[in-house]
Amino acid sequence: MILDIREGPKPQVHIDQERCAGCTECLKECPRGCLSLDPKGWVVSWSGKDCAGCRSCQRVCPYGNIRVEGPFRWLHGRLHPLARDVEERLADFHEVSLGYTREEAFREAHRCLGCPRPRCREACPAGNDIPGFIDAVRRHDLPGAMAILRRTTNLPAVCSRVCHQAQQCEGACVYAREGGEAVAIGQLERFVADWCREHTCGYVGRDGRWPTGRRAAVVGSGPAGLSAAEDLARQGHAVTVYEALPVLGGVMAWGIPTFILPWELLDHKLGELECLGVEFQSGMRVGADRNLEQLLAEHDAVLLTTGAGQDNLLGLPGAELAGVCTATAFLSRSKDCLRGQGEHSSPGRTLVIGAGNTAMDVARTARRLGSKEIYAVDILPEEVAPVRRDELAKARDEGVCVWFSTSVARFLPDAGGQLGAAELVGTKLQEDPSGRRRAVPVPGTDQILPVDTVVFAMGYRARGDALAGFARIVPDARGLIPVASGTGRTAAAGVWAAGDAATGPGALVRAMVAGKRAARDMDAYLRGAQSTVA
Amino acid sequence: MLAEPQRQPRLERETSPPAATAPYFAGDVRSFELTRIGWVARLFRRRWFQFAVILPNQIIFWVALIGGFIGTVDPTRSFGTAITWYFWFFAVLAGALMVGRVWCQICPFGGFAEWIQRLTPWGRRERGLTLNRRWPERWAVWGIIPGALVFYLLTWVEEYYNVVGPGKPIYTSYLIIFVFALAIGTFSVFGRRTFCRYLCPLSAPVGIFSTVGVLSGFRTRDRERCMSCDTKECMRGSKVSYGCPWFEFPGSNATNQGCGLCTECFKGCPNDNVGLYLQPPLTNVHSPGKRRWDVAWALVLLWGIGWYQQWNALSWFSNARGTGIDDWLNRLTGWPHYPNPLGYLLLTAGVAAGYYLYSRAAARWAGADWRRLFTAGAYALIPVVGADYLARQLPKLWDHVTRVITTASDPFGWGWNLFGTARLPIYHTRLLPPGGVVATQVAVMAIATAAAGWAAWRIWRRDWGGERPRVLGALALAVLAAGVYTAVMYVAMQAAE
User: What is each CA distance from B83 to A75, A202, B66, B104, B411, in whole angstroms?
Assistant: First the structure.
């Protein structure tokens, strides 16, 4: 039941009339229209009729002249969608969260106050019109909500599942800023994307553009590549996507487990692109099978979105032992076997080095592959570890033992020369002479942990191998492709780069946004340039 | 049979303020923007600008302060006494009445405390030496009245110790130390220029009298653009500027009373949408954005102080024979000597009560709301009261200002001759004869009364829409009576001397 906001104790807003300068910042911020400018005195006055007590006016007043007392009148608490039981979800690789029902989405959408100056939108890397699409949900106009999302995002189904909303849109929500639970923006976005996919209103057209006759190549099929390919195709350009791996989708295909991002979402997106006329060539590694010069000869523009797929490793004693692998290898092998390509036996006692989101994915995948003892260790304390709190909670629910402030000293072989154990050591944060806080080992905290498999999940770095044989672009020291900010243009004419390949490992949504920006600049270039392709 | 006499129909009473009190912005009047002049704009954009204009004053007042302690005890030879009471106070008042809050731009008290608060003389720092508290709302509702009360208190202290008289130079130093200490203490506890806005003893008279002046303060060029600005760097500050230290907003600033001319908003506006304007004199007397009751009461308080200082120059108030009113009150209350605080309190309160009763009676007669008439009348009186303060400084200026030149070369009375002016034969030079002095005083009052009358007419037109002519009559009578009374009193004071 939706509660009437007029029930219960009412908040009181006190405005210091003497100091109110009439700048109207509070008026612009108030989601309920409770403030007005008195034209006689040029000061703001408050009418408490619909005031939610959200404190937006208090926060925004440049001179701190507004004081709000009384409760923030919630409609109701955040609705958490149902999730499958732990026992049930450990038995397969199906998605854990079930998402909102239509009724739940409608109720949750009513929590949104529709802030006139939406901080959630400012905090969204894609700039999604969040109050706009939630308002459409509230009006039961789900195709309209999808249309609003599509203005700024190509991957709503993916971003809604993968984005760290607590640090982005939901972190900026007025509820969260008041210490409450933010509107479930991610879940609502997921509901809209899933509903539209299931109700066949998901495929996008060419925006009425005629084919331009220009050819564009996109190297890499990750979030940046797919979003750029879609935007270019919608503008009427002929787009070919080159993917080094046999499976399309980049990190969405090999790096994110299906219990977070089901196959069908990616398949639907790829099908959508094919309908737009995008061609895909998988298993073709640019830089090895074909170099960039050849691609440039065949296309008017080339976009490099090769990602950052190289695992970071620690040069620890024993790291060469059989049983030590990387997150990329582990996750891609597990997904291969899900597709019926190869087998993946139980990894046994598993130690995951790192406690970020990838490490949680590895640990939870290992659990589903039959491992009974899974440990994840991170050198940092829990409060500063870069992991989504909800993913950490799910991993712990599933029996993953996560130890923070713990590092690995070395790996020890067993009698057969295989990996047998890992030596762990506790750490603490300590300032070095330059003032930076670093984790240092704590003497006397060593312990030996018997393990069968060790997976390095300590982040990624760029490979930079797409530029092999192409001298006009020189990668920087980190292997990143230097680009112009905002457009993704490289030093070579006709070549763009976007996503992790240009900026280093980052959030998926930022790669998507970079791909869109590059596509916009490429479109302008392609429309202005004469085709050089025979 | 005699017909029953017809009663004069009573005027319909006001029930709500008219819409005529609408905002009044610089853009609404013909004005000239000073910051359109290239070198002025370039100068104002420099962070060191305000430091540069404060520094000379800072040096002068520190010399005056130190001179009281280590210099001569002869006030006629003291640079501190000469610069403070023969020139400075006149210049502050003249600057306010003719220009605006220029004193606040170069004030050494607020300037010095602000350097400490910001921990930099002109740079931009995020953190400073202040608790950054807010002036409590229950105090803020009193507006500038606390500052007027500090001025009221200091005036009595000045009379008690005969600081201006001239008294001992060290008393001038104590006065300067008090203002410095009050400023530094307030800046350390409260954020920005809370001291200047609420507590500074000079801010009340300077702020009120500056409404007569021609400098409108910093205001927006395009108000719509200003209101749509999301960053409000003029209020919040930016990398190159502090947020308005005076808690003003150029987008809604419709009076020069609160703008301290610090140039921070001009430096910080990302849209280059702030300018400094010239306006016709008296604009902010007759057409401020809103009329403030605290300004009205502070003006009445200042007026009462003016009355007191005129009365105390007359022999029937205080004399050497001990037969004056003040002497009688001292005997009654056991107070040691002039000035009796009860007399000070009663006379100033009497002026306020008299004006209050006049407003009530005039409002009843004119069928107007007495609060509006009280406030509007006080605004109309600003030129008269301001001119009264200025005229009172004229005898000191004409008779003794030359001493500033001579004592500047020998600030401590130690026999120095730093600039070669110490022994100039101008020490006893009077710029005007006694008759000329009173003539200038009367002339100043005459001009001010005429200006106040014109302002009263504009106020009546703006606030009452040209209706209720009795309101105009009440306002005009008040300013005329005040102006004539003050001018007559100056003649009487001259006669008493």
Answer: 68, 82, 13, 18, 10
Domain that holds residue A173: 86-198
> CB contact, 8 Å: A14 with chain B?
yes
pLDDT for residue B20? 38
Point out the domain boundary residue: A419, A443, A459: A459
User: Regarding predicted confidence, which is higher, A209 or B305?
Assistant: B305
Grouping H, G, I as helix, E, B as strand and the rest as coil, residue B311 is helix
The residue ranges of chain B whose pLDDT is under 50 are: 1-11, 15-24, 26-27
CATH of the domain at A9: 3.30.70.20
Residues A513 and A446 occupy one common structural domain? no
Q: How many contacts, defined by CB atoms under 8 Å, are there between A and B?
A: 56
Whether the pLDDT of residue A529 is over 80: the answer is no
Q: What is the ipTM of this complex?
A: 0.84
Distance (Å) of CA B479 to CA A380, A468, B385, B390, B450: 76, 90, 10, 17, 9
Nearest CA in chain B to A40: B22
Residue with tokens 């400018």: A37
Residues in a beta bridge with A247: none
Looking from the CA of B345 toward its CB, the CA atoms found within 13 Å total: 4
pLDDT digits (tens, 9 = 90+) for B289-342: 788 999 999 999 999 999 999 998 888 898 888 889 999 999 999 999 889 999
Model confidence, pTM: 0.79
Burial class (CB in 10 A: 0-12, 13-18, 19+), B201: buried
Whole-angstrom Cα Rg for chain B:
24
**Residue range A61-111, pLDDT digits in tens:** 999 999 999 888 777 788 999 988 988 988 888 999 899 999 999 999 999
For B227, nearest residue in chain A (alpha carbons): A23
Q: How far is A146 from chain B (nearest CA, A)?
A: 29
* Same domain, yes or no: A316 and A292: no
pLDDT (tens digit per residue) in A407-441 = 999 999 888 888 889 999 999 988 888 888 888 88
The reply to whether A12 touches chain B by the CB within 8 Å rule is no
Q: Whole-angstrom Cα distance, residue B291 to residue B20?
A: 12
Q: What is the spatial distance between Cα A279 and Cα A299, in angstroms, rounded to a whole number?
A: 13
Residues B489, B392: Cα–Cα separation, whole Å: 11
Residues A65 and A170 in one domain: no
pLDDT at B15: 47
Determine which helix (DSSP H) or strand (DSSP E) holds A58, and give its type and residue range: helix A56-60
Q: What whole-number distance in Å separates Cα of residue A282 and Cα of residue A345?
A: 27
Record: contact A23-B243, CB cut-off 8 A: no
The CA-based dihedral angle spanning residues B89, B93, B95, B100, taken in that order and rounded to the nearest 10 degrees: 130
Q: Give the pair of three-digit tokens for residue A152.
A: 């700024």
* Residue A385 belongs to domain with CATH number: 3.50.50.60
CA distance B350 to B359: 14
Distance CA(A376)–CA(B262), nearest Å, equals 58
Residue B361 corresponds to which tokens in the numbers above? 């009676």
At residue A203 the predicted structure's pLDDT band, cuts being 50, 70 and 90, is low
Q: Residue A370 and residue A347: Cα distance in Å, rounded?
A: 7
CA terminus-to-terminus distance, chain A: 65
Amino acid symbol at A370: G
